[in-house]
Amino acid sequence: MSNTFRNITGTFDILPAPYSVGGSQVAGSAAWQFVEATIRVVMGRFNVQEIRTPIFEQTELIARGVGQLTDIVSKEMFAFERGDTNYVLRPEVTAPVMRAYLQHHLDQQGGVQKLYYIGPCFRAERPQKGRFRQFHQFGCEVIGTPDARADAEVIALMMAVYEAFGVNETTLRLNTLGDEASRPRYKAALQAYLSPYEARLSETSRERLSTNPLRILDTKNADEQDLLQGAPVLVDYIDAESRAHYEELKGLLGDLGVAFVEDPFLVRGLDYYTRTAFELERPNLGAQSALAGGGRYDLLAVEVGSKRPVPAVGFAAGLERLFLALFEQGTALPEAPKPQVFFVALGDEAARWVFSKAQALRHAGLRVGLDLNGRSMKAQMREANRQGAPFTVIVGKDELAAEKAQVKTMETGDQVEVGFNDLTAYLDSEGNATRP
C-alpha cells in the first residue's frame, strides 16, 4: 500500500520549472517572482505601500465584511474552530486590510492610505481552469477619501499593471451602485420585475430572488440573460450625489485615456460595494473572462466595527488569471536561473577544496553549482550540461598541485588554465559569466 501523499485538490505546487496539471499550466517559480516583482514596480510608481495581513481571520470579520448572503460566506469558506473562537482562511483581502487600517489607527498617520498586497486566498469552490481553492490575489486599497480621483487612480493603476505585461484586448466595464439607500430601492424593483418569471429561473437564481436578487445579474444562463434585457437598471435608482460622482469619474477616465464600457447590470459579487463598481475582462480565460475587479466600499469600515464610515476604493485580481492571459498570448516568461559556473572535482581532496572555493565565489556574487554526490567526472559534466552552466571549473590532483584550474567553455569546448587566485576575476570578467 502506497503512503505517497499528494497536494489537495484545487491547490498546486509552484516548482522551479513550469508544468501542467489538470489541464492548467503552472508557471515556474522564476516566472512567479518576475510577475510579482513587476506588480511591485507598478505599485511603486503610484506611490502605493505594501501591507501583509494574516491568511486567517476571525470568521465574523469576513462574514460581516463580505456579506452573510454572498456565496463566499454561505458556501465557499474554509472555516475552523480553536477554543471558543471561529476562524476562516481569508477568501479575499479587502476586509482584512480594513481591519488592519482600523486596528492600527492608520488614519492618524495623516493623508490617504494607499496600500497594496500580494498573497494567497482560499475558497471552497469547484476547481476549474484558472480557478483554484487556494489562489493568489494582488490588489490595492485607497482608504480615506471619497474623491472620484481616488476611484480613477485605482482603475488607472489596475490598467497599468496589465499594460506592464502587454496584456491587451481587455474591456473595462463600469457602473455605479449608488449610496446605501439606492440598493434597497433597486432590489425591490428588480424583485418586482423578476417575480412573474420565477418559474423560468434556475434553482440558484430562485434562491437569490428573495435573499440577494442583485446576484442574479451575474448569471451566465442565456435564458436569464434574455430576461434581464428588460429589467430595471441601477443607474435609474441612484441618488443625485452618486450620479455626480459617477459622471466625474467617467470624465477623469476620459482625461486619462482609459476606455470603458458602461454596464448597468454590473454589481460585483460582494455586499460591501457602494457607488463605483468596475471589472476588467479578457476573452479566452477559461470558465470566466474576468481578470480583475473592484469598486468603492465606503460602508465596509462600519460593518467591521468602526464608529463612523471610512471612504475607500480598491481592486483585486488573481495571479492565476493573469498567468492565463500571459500563456494565452504567448508571453515569454523567465525560466529557472542557470548557474554561472559548475565545479567538477576529481577525488576527495579536490572535492574538499572545491566545496570551500564555491562558497568564496558565491560570496563574491556568482551563482555556483557543484556535485554533492561524489560522482565521476563524466557524470559531473553531464550535470553541468543539464543545468546549463556556461563554464565548468575542473579541479583534480594535478590542479591542486599547480594551484591552477581548468576552465572549460561549454558551448565551444575551449579550455584554459586559470590560477586559483584569479578564478573570481576571470569568471566575473566581461565576456564570461555574468552576475544574476
Detailed description of the structure:
The chain is α+β, with helices and mostly antiparallel strands and 436 residues long. The protein has 2 domains: 19-179 and 238-328, 2-Layer Sandwich (BirA Bifunctional Protein, domain 2), CATH 3.30.930.10; 341-427, Rossmann fold, CATH 3.40.50.800. The protein contains 15 helices and 18 strands. It has helices at 29-45, 59-66, 71-75, 94-103, 148-164, 182-194, 203-211, 222-228, 240-255, 300-303, 319-328, 348-363, 377-387, 397-402, 423-428; strands spanning 19-21, 24-26, 49-50, 56-58, 79-82, 85-89, 113-122, 134-143, 171-176, 261-262, 274-281, 290-296, 312-318, 341-345, 368-370, 391-395, 404-409, 415-419. An 8-stranded mixed beta sheet has the order 3-7-8-13-12-11-9-10, with helices on both faces. A 5-stranded mixed beta sheet has the order 15-14-16-17-18, sandwiched between helices. The radius of gyration is 28 Å and the shape is elongated. The mean pLDDT is 90.
Number of helices: 15
The CATH superfamily name of the largest domain is Bira Bifunctional Protein, Domain 2
Spans of at least 5 consecutive residues with low confidence = none
Taking the alpha carbons of the first and last residues, their distance comes to 45 Å
How would you classify the helix and strand content by structural class? alpha+beta
Number of domains: 2
Number of strands: 18
How much of the residues is beta strand, in percent?
Answer: 15-25%
The largest sheet, given as strand count, sense and whether it forms a barrel, is: 8 strands, mixed
Radius of gyration: 28 Å
The name of the CATH architecture of the largest domain is 2-Layer Sandwich
Mean pLDDT: 90
Task: Report the helical percentage.
Answer: 25-40%
Shape: elongated
What name is given to the CATH topology of the largest domain? BirA Bifunctional Protein, domain 2
The top level CATH class name of the largest domain: Alpha Beta
Going across the major beta sheet, what is the strand order? 3-7-8-13-12-11-9-10
